[in-house]
Amino acid sequence: MHFWVPTKLKPGQPTLILIPGFGGSSLWQFFIQVWHLSRRVNLYVPDLLFFGNSYSDETVRSDDFQARCIVEGMKKLGENRFNVAGISYGGYVTYKIGEMYPNEVEKIVIVSSGICYTEEQKNEHLEKLGKSPKDFLVPQNPQDLRHLLDFSMYRANWLKMLPGFFLQHAIDAVLKENGKQKKEILEYLINREPVPEHGNLSRETLIIWGDRDSVFPVKYAYELQRHLEPIAKVQVINGAGHALNFDAPIAMNNHIISFLQN
Question: Any transmembrane segments, and where (predicted)?
C-alpha cells in the first residue's frame, strides 16, 4: 500500500487520511488540494489497491479489503487515531473504515458517494450511464475519457478541452494499468448488497456534495444523512458536479478543515 505522507508532523493538528475515487493515482486526483490541505492537517494520501503504486497478490476486490489495507498501513506508519475522508468510490472505502475501526476513527467525511440506494435505484442509475460501468470508468480512448469527464465535472471545462493525444497518454500511462483488477473491483461494487436500513457508523460524519452531480444526484446525500441520523450533516457546494476535487477543491478543503477543527 503506497502512501503520500507528511514530511514533518504538525503537533496539535488533526491527522487525516484522504482517499481518492476510482481513477488514476491519488496524486493525480488530489494535486490541486494537497498543498492547501496539508498546511492545516497532518495529511496521509494512499493510492487505492491497483491504482498508482499500490498492489496486492490477493484476489479479494472488496471495499472491506481496501479499508483494512489502508488502516494497517497507517498503523505501520505509527498512526493509530485519525480522521478519514473519501470521494466517490473512496467514500465507500471511508464508510467501511468507519464501520470496521470505530476506535481508531475520530471523524468521517464522505464526498459524492452514493452509498445508500435501493436495487431499483441502482438499475436506474446503471441505465442512465448508457454503457457498462466497466467501460465507462475504465476508458480505452479519448472519446470515452471525454464522456467520463463530461459526466463527472460541471465547472472544470479545461480538462475536457485537453487534446486527444494528451488524453490517450493519460489512458495509457494511468488508466489501463491493472485494467483487469479495476474491472473486478467494479464488478464487486455493482453486485454488492445495499447497506442495512440503519447506519452502523458511530462517529460524527460530514457529507459533502455538488448540487450539479450527474453521477449521484444530491438526493443521495440526504438519503445517506437519513441513514446515519443523528450523527451526520450535509454540506452542498453550489455550481459543482461529482468530481469536487476538480470542480471545487478549495471549497471542499475548507469544509473538511472547518469540520475537523470544530
Answer: none
